[in-house]
Each structure stands twice: as structure tokens, then as C-alpha cells.
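hiii so um. not sure if this is the right channel but i have a protein structure encoded as C-alpha cells and i wanna go backwards to a sequence. like what aa goes where. can anyone help
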């Protein structure tokens, strides 16, 4: 019975839940080797390199994708905590403006049970 139940649970679709991890406010736009990099201040939580990101301008989502790179001065870092400044490059997006907000989040998949 347990094997059949486990097989049936494996066929059920997973539920995706978004877990916010942090926010950063764009303070300055920098062009480095032709790539637009947002000079940001992390305003809450932690921003993680490689996590999902969302660019919000005037309370509207402009872009959603991956955070391509995260730098503190010239060092590549994995995460930046609240109160620190960093440079953020977004994967495939360069139309940044000052006062935009970059939200970092993770997507967690939850398996359904019978």
C-alpha cells in the first residue's frame, strides 16, 4: 500500500511558494564594460546572488528573472545583508533607473500529499 501511495503522490503536481529574502533600492546606475549595474543599498533582509529577482518601479513589476551578479566593491559575494551597499546586475535587463527596487526571493516547491 505504501509503495502505491508514494507512486501516486509522485504524480501530483508540486505547489510553488515564493519566499522573499530581501530588497535593495537602486541609488546609482553604473556602466561597466557595456553592462548596466545597479549601485544599490540593501534596505531589508538579504539579497542573494543567483536567486530570483524582481524589479519594481512605481509599484509595478517591470522585470522578473535571475540576479546575475552581486558585488561588494570589486569582490564577488554570495549575499549582502541589510544596511550594506552593493552592485547588482540583472540577467538580460539593463533599463534600470534610480529609486527602482530590486526584490530577491526564492521559489520553494512543496509536494502534495494524499
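sure thing!! here u go:
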Amino acid at each position: 500500500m505504501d509503495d502505491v501511495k508514494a507512486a501516486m503522490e509522485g504524480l501530483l503536481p508540486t505547489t510553488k511558494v515564493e519566499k522573499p529574502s530581501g530588497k535593495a533600492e537602486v541609488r546609482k546606475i553604473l556602466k561597466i564594460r557595456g553592462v548596466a549595474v545597479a549601485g544599490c543599498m540593501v534596505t531589508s533582509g538579504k539579497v542573494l546572488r543567483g536567486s530570483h529577482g524582481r524589479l519594481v518601479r512605481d509599484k509595478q513589476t517591470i522585470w522578473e528573472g535571475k540576479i546575475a551578479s552581486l558585488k561588494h566593491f570589486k569582490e564577488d559575494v554570495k549575499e549582502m545583508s541589510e544596511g550594506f551597499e552593493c552592485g547588482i546586475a540583472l540577467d538580460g535587463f539593463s533599463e534600470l533607473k534610480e529609486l527602482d527596487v530590486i526584490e530577491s526571493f526564492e521559489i520553494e516547491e512543496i509536494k502534495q500529499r494524499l
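oh and Residues 2-11 form the longest helix (10 residues).
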